[in-house]
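Weekend entry, working from home. Most of the wet-lab plans are on hold until the incubator is repaired, so I used the time to fold the two sequences that have been sitting in the queue since the last round of cloning. Logging both here for the record. First:
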Amino acid sequence: MKESFPYRAGLDKLIPVSEIPVLNRMRSLPQPQKRLLWKIIKITSKDGLAIYNGKLIDLKILLTQGLIEQNLLYRGKGISLFVLPGAQHLLRQLIRKIE
């Protein structure tokens, strides 16, 4: 089953201009990282937090691109992430597409 981001249908018109570069970074990711980011977005709360149960090394590209940030204060199981920091409108639109 092929997964892709549901942002082809005019999502750029639904978010502020300041968040377009984040959307473009998402679009330019290699396919495996797009899939990983999509899986993370699916488990993200409306507050923009997600607990990832994989390896930190798998997140390297997403971290360097600034699409996620590690929550270093979290001490539970898994890796706590801030998803799409600084692009709350984009995250909200993507979460709405899932629901």
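Second, folded right after the first finished:
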Amino acid sequence: MFERYMEICTKRRTHLINVLEGNTQEIDPCTQHKLYGAINEIGFIIDALHYYEEKNSNNGKEHGIKEEQVDNGTN
């Protein structure tokens, strides 16, 4: 799930950067500002996805340890 969202966000962010870099002279300042804002927002979303993906994988590891303890009768 995280991979798909990450792919979508990264693709969109790259596209916006390319639009901004390729047409800077033709785009009015207000639209440029909106593009910069969108690029930054997508960056925040990507950072959040990384955080929750890592947190999710760590919870899975902790859960695996608990299962081993139960299987070994140490709990």
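Plan for Monday: verify the second prediction. Residues 29-71 form the longest helix (43 residues).
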